């Protein structure tokens, strides 16, 4: 599981049938020093996260379990939580970058 | 499965029901890249059924092993868990930063 920031959304009309109706968000991983990364992840949103919010992303079966509610789906990453905050040894990281220490 | 160090904790109110009551720790992996600067380290968030403290070295498992460690059968909405708190480790090639205080480097 990792923490990332939602930076956008993806739409696809032609897709694997089990992905119908799923909301696909683009997430950038959080790095410990707070640096920006070019890496992006596309994850199914099971929570209702907004752009700018920090979220928890899981992979693999944990993701398929969250997305499919027991059914297999053709996707391997999912947003399973919206971060309220992180305490990194006294450094507070907020729900959005604007709320950071 | 990897060796890591607890560098923080994360809270979430809006989350998958499976995560209710789970303590989620932020873990800095101590990996082969060794002296990577902190601002390039991508932390792993892991469920903690054991009760590890900030700064402790831990062993983290992925996948079904992680869910079993948290009392599940494989159907939980997470895939990483702390499964052991390290008493000591002996890795001759490890850099000093492995034993430094969390956040003590950047």
Which CATH C-level class of chain A is it?
Mainly Beta
- Total DSSP helices of chain B: 1
Name the helix and strand elements of chain B from N-terminus to C-terminus, one letter apiece: EEEEHE
H-E order of chain A: EEEEHEE
Mean pLDDT reading of chain A? 93
Spatial separation of the terminal alpha carbons of chain A: 23 Å
**Share in β-strands of chain A:** 35-45%
- Total strand segments of chain B: 5
The CATH homologous superfamily of chain A is termed: EutN/Ccml
Question: Which structural class is indicated by helix and strand composition of chain A?
Answer: mainly beta
Coarse morphology of chain A = elongated
Structural class of chain B: mainly beta
Oligomer: heterodimer
Helix content of chain B: under 10%
Instruction: Describe the strand arrangement of the main beta sheet of chain B, using strand numbers.
Output: 3-2-1-4-5
Short synopsis of the structure:
The complex is a heterodimer of chains A (101) and B (106). Chain A has 101 residues and is mainly beta. Chain A has one helix spanning 60-68; strands at 2-10, 24-29, 41-45, 54-59, 77-88, 91-94.
Model description:
The complex is a heterodimer of chains A (101) and B (106). Chain A is mostly beta strands and 101 residues long. Chain A is built from 1 helix and 6 strands; from the N terminus they run E-E-E-E-H-E-E. Chain A has one helix at residues 60-68, and strands at residues 2-10, 24-29, 41-45, 54-59, 77-88, 91-94. The two termini of chain A are 23 Å apart. Chain A binds chain B through residues 1-3, 29-35, 37, 46-48, 56, 58-63, 65-66, 70, 78, 80-89, 91, 93, and chain B through 7-16, 18-19, 24, 26, 28, 37-46, 54-55, 63-64, 67, 74-80, 102-103, 106. Strand 5 (77-88) of chain A pairs antiparallel with strand 1 (2-15) of chain B, so a sheet runs across the interface.
